[in-house]
Amino acid sequence: MKRHKMFKDEGPGVPRRTFFASVPGAGVALGALSRLWSVQQPDPPTIRLSNGHLELAFDGRNGRLLRLFDEATKQDFVAGATQGGDVWALNIAAADEQETIAPARASAFRSEQSEEHSVTLIWEDFDLKAAPDLRVEVSVSLEPDTPMSRWNISLENVGDLALDRVRFPRVVGIPDLGNERLAVPQWMGQLAKNPRRLGIREGGGRQRWEWAYPGALSLQCLALYGHDGPGLYTACDDTAAFWKTFAFWADDAGMMNYEMSNAPGQAEVGSGRYALPYGALIGTFAGDWVTAAERYRAWGIEQAWCRESRLARGLVPTSALETGLWEWNRGRSAGVLGPAALLRSKLGLPVRVFWHWWHGCAYDHGFPEYLPPREGAGPFRRALAKAHEVGLRAIVYMNQRLWCSPAPSWKAENAERFAVRDRDGELLSEVYNTFTKAQCQTMCMATSFWRDKYAGLAEAAVQEYDVDGVYMDQACSSVLCYSQDHGHPPGGGNYWLPGFAKLTSDIRTRAKGARDLILAGEGCGEAWLPHLDLFLTLQVSRERYLEPGGDWEVIPFFQAVYHDYGVSFGNYSSLTAPPYDDLWPAETAPNDALQLLDARYNGQFLLEQARAFVWGLQPMIANFLPSQLEERGEQIAYLLRLARLRNQGLKYLLYGSFLRPPRTDVPEVKTDLLRLSIYAGQDSAANAWHNSFPAVQCGAWLAKDGDVGVAVANITDKPVPMRFTLTATEQRLPESGRINRIGEEGREEIGQFQNGRASVNIELPPLGAYILDFTKTTIE
To answer: I want to staple 476 with a disulfide (CB 3.0 to 4.6 A). Which of 126, 306, 523, 610 is the partner?
Structure first.
């Protein structure tokens, strides 16, 4: 395609040409010279950028985005916006100003270009008393030889504007791409089918999805695409974890829209200037969410969080790496350590304990008064020492940002002073406990008071009670704090993660001499890779705690990008009803705590365990009771089988990098599902539904030595034939080699491959699983 050069150079020594335009509908007229110019001159031409892969077009009169065209798929991603769409908007918080400042408020617009594939768009004359000289500048450039554009924005002469959000960049009027999918790395990752339909609220209205980073989003990339069709890739290249949100929503015309919303710090705005401290990216692709993950990975693994990740630097404790299975039980040691020891004897591999409700306070009610343990200091120490003798290790629960108001220490230690405040100066209170309704306050990670408090508790747990690590609940999250006296710029910024880094460093310093201290966290996030040893992947069990329905499905988005840089563990897979904390009110205790679930939900357990296996996660079982060895023997045997098999394929499932799973021809199986967890789904009849899943779960992995492994797990009680093909293009298969099948019976060669292509035709036995190993050798 012809490449457009927007402005022609006039010759040596002649400056770049600038087009000026008055903006229709502006609230303030231009001066006399500007009015004369607009009358005498025709409308400025459309501003176009193209690199042969991606074409952008902006309205020369007002800077609206008119075209975002992918050459490969011939898709215009803003075709639904007939008048174009604003690329920015400003939200201000001052009561005497309008809520949003849009480009149409400017009386003057101009554009400048110095290079063929970049342009600067400038809006001025906003008639704002608080900022009479405000100027907004947007720079857009195309990346060479790829369908990718980079966007930046700066605000000059901000004046007294109470700037709350800079909504930029915005893509308005995305037409239906056909059989659409929206992929979001919400922690582990999730995928929406038909997001436009999901965007319609029950009873009318439109829904907006918005995710914060760092926090709910584990990485900075979203993808909206037609199934096997054109896709829109949105991302940014922030390496310092500035707070922001990403959003998609559908409008009344049925068009999808996108924007990134950036939260400037008050101190930064007070300087009179704000410039986005990183670049925003908008690109196109042909493919699916794996295609988007591969693009993001190419950038992500070059960043400091990968170079400094604890796994890459060999700092993850050996006891964490050697884990064969996690047991997630709650309460006193008799109901936690005894069952774990039994699991270890049955498995024959190291079992680790993920221990909740060990602490002296009620869960989600009395934090952070964790010490002494609820069963008493002496009994706790003796039980843990006995567990250590048989090779068990335990990490204990300690929420790393909540202080509950009912705790006597809340007032005694004047903790309120160090809690997060919203813009109005109010405490950021949260309620999790549906039984006690206790208010929990978020503590500001930027304050040394909170870090010292938490690190001291962790030090005591490790040094006085000999625990093997701390699970830092809500770790992979960040919160905006508007307090004026916490030592950080109020509002937006990137102060949260450095505070967390100081906290984990302090804990490890205080715990020196303790054996293999493990620090684990909830969720996952790229910015936390240098600070945490383990990342909890609860989304494997998302059906247990989210609203019933099959519109969103879990995907291993984070693992597709960063599996070989961080260790993921766990799920909430359980065969029983949830337990009930005996420190909660007795009158709200259920009658069926820890009772076996109906056998119809066994398939949900099998699905979760299979997902964890093929996605390279350390396996876990929640609420394990010794009686399950008999009452749910088939399901426990499946769990132990997968754990042993995973242990034979650690070069793939622990240290390998994610590959595109091969396309398979297996049937789908209807599975009964139940939304039921500690707080969710107490009315089980209203929270039961079913969905269909592939009868065989499948994942592909690249080992560091270049071999390829495919993990497969049958979740049905019937044999399932399975065929698939691997190629050098899609799975980086070696040119030639041997195909080995690793199963319970050991390793067996079942074929060979050549010319960078391998075809497999096998049958999986009922509840069977294999790792298919494609090793590179020269085949004569």
So the answer is: 523
3-state secondary structure of 617: coil
- Let me know: does 477 contact 444? Beta carbons within 8 Å: no
Least confident of 32-41, 69-78, 157-166, 677-686: 32-41
Contact 608, 536 (CB under 8 A): no
Report d(CA 562, CA 581) in Å as an integer: 36
Residue 776 · residue 706 · CB < 8 Å: yes
The alpha carbon dihedral of 430, 432, 435, 441 has a sign of negative
Burial class (CB in 10 A: 0-12, 13-18, 19+), 576: buried
Query: SS3 sequence, 349-388?
Result: CCEEEEEECCCCCCCCCCCCCCCCCCCCHHHHHHHHHHHH
For residue 295, the number of C-alpha atoms closer than 13 Å in the C-beta half-sphere is: 26
Residue 275 DSSP SS3: strand
Q: Is 606 helix (H, G, I), strand (E, B) or coil?
A: helix
State the pLDDT at residue 406: 97
Q: Take residue 443 and report the two structure tokens written for it.
A: 């503590």
What secondary structure does DSSP assign to 509-521, as a single string? HHTTTSTT-EEEE
242: closest CA among 265, 224, 226?
Answer: 265
Q: Which amino acid would we find at residue 167?
A: R
Q: Tokens 């995907």 correspond to what residue? A: 555
| CA quadruple 727, 733, 739, 744: dihedral sign | negative
Q: Would you say residue 444 has pLDDT above 60?
A: yes
Nearest alpha carbon to residue 703 among 617, 639, 616, 768 = 616
Q: How far apart are CA 48 and CA 116, in angstroms?
A: 10
Average pLDDT over every residue of 489-499: 95
Query: Could you give the CA distance from residue 420 to residue 302 in angstroms, rounded to a whole number?
Result: 33
Q: How far apart are CA 479 and CA 430, in angstroms?
A: 12
pTM above 0.85, yes or no: yes
Mean pLDDT, the chain, rounded, equals 92
| Surface-to-core class of residue 763, CB atoms within 10 Å of its CB (0-12 exposed, 13-18 middle, 19+ buried) | exposed
Query: What would the mean pLDDT of 189-208 be, rounded to a whole number?
Result: 79
Residue 181 and residue 195 in contact, taking contact as beta carbons nearer than 8 Å: yes
588: which DSSP letter? G
Give the model's pLDDT for residue 28.
36
The pair phi, psi for residue 744, each rounded to 5°, is: -60, -30
How is residue 538 annotated by DSSP? G
CB 575 within 8 A of CB 597: yes
Q: Tell me the helix, strand and coil percentages in the chain, rounded to 5.
A: 25, 35, 45
Residue 347: CA count within 13 A, CB half-sphere: 31
196-202: long-range pairs with CB below 8 Å, 24+: 196/250, 196/254, 196/256, 198/551, 198/552, 199/248, 199/249, 199/250, 199/256, 200/250
Neighbours of 449 (CB within 10 A): 15
Cα 766 from Cα 190, distance rounded (Å): 28
Give the residue-averaged pLDDT of 729-744. Answer: 96
Short-list 365, 374, 366, 386, CA closest to 330: 374
* pLDDT-based confidence at residue 14 (cuts at 50, 70, 90): very low
Q: What is the 3-state secondary structure (H, E, C) of 660-701?
A: CCCCCCCCEEEEEEECCCCCCCCCHHHHEEEEEEECEEEEEE
